User: Fold this.
Amino acid sequence: MKLPARVTICEVGTRDGFQIEPEFIPTGAKIAVTDLLTAAGVPRIEVTSFVSPKAIPQLRDAAEVMARITRRPGTRYAALVPNDKGASNAVAAGVDAIHTVVSASESHNLANVNMTVKEFLAKLRGVMEIGARAGVPVQSGISTSFGCPFEGDVPMARLEWVVGELTAIGARAIGLADTTGMANPRQVSVALEYLMPRFPGIEWTLHTHDTRAMAIPNILAAIEMGVSHFDASIGGLGGCPFAPGASGNVCTEDLVHCLHAMGVETGIDLDALIAVSRRVQDIVGRALPGQVVKAGKSDRRYPVPDGVAARLP
Ligand code: COA
Ligand code: ZN
Assistant:
């Protein structure tokens, strides 16, 4: 395999994960999780979103969370925003980066933000301007890049068109999101092979959901194509409230475990991350999909059974 020395992980559990939790997570718990992720060395965190509190009531405390987290120099704290209002609020809250998402498919975009893709791209121009004026980088995500739960296949020409529209309004960092885990590794390879040379100089991120157990394979396919930025969610939390069948993101500690086992650095302390995952399970009150939390790391060893020990040659 062709592997890079290092990749950059953006933790999205406190946003993509917490946003679908039905019970309000106390603001203090959100802050504690963000601080623990910081302490574990996670280099980028999508902390929250500055969206309509009617759309996502869980994240109505975005400003307070941003104000009270403990920031480590070198960690990039971002928030998702849907419009000018969100972008201004995020900048006022001191985010280091603004994240946006437009869908590749019309029905998901309407379900998510109540606008057609064209209408929404026009809004995103305003967000790009707010980011540029404030000197805050904007990362432009594209939901349903690899398939839509309502419309099915997303043609490559359509994805290319959305990427083109985003770069035309100034996007330099683009996230391809597999919102409901429809992508497969070959499809990820083919899409990146097509898009990367056509849009040179873009920082590509892959945002995966493990709905069909293809998230890590998809990430490995993207790594082989030269992508080095990945979103992941502690414990495998997450889902999109506006996409039926969506489940959690790729689990951060499982991904970090896989990368470290292959000698790919992330800058993250895996043991600390596993401890954060346990804490998040306590907060949401249920077991999460992550595997390493249950199995332990691959260097875990068990005592040799008595009968076996006696017969070892
Ligand atoms: N922050 C806080 N409040 C906001 C806001 C923002 N960024 N954007 C809009 N609002 C408020 C408006 O002020 C208005 O409030 P009011 O009813 O008290 O006057 C209300 O939300 C509705 O605003 P409107 O402009 O009519 O938007 P809408 O109802 O068509 O909703 C969005 C559009 C984009 C604001 C809303 O759908 C949204 O926030 N979606 C986010 C979805 C999301 O995060 N999905 C997860 C990503 S996968
Ligand atoms: Zn997502």
In short: Residues 16, 177, 179, 207, 209, 240, 249 surround zinc ion (ligand 2) (CB under 6 Å). The chain has a mean pLDDT of 96. The beta strands are 8-11, 44-49, 76-80, 97-103, 138-143, 173-178, 203-208, 229-232.
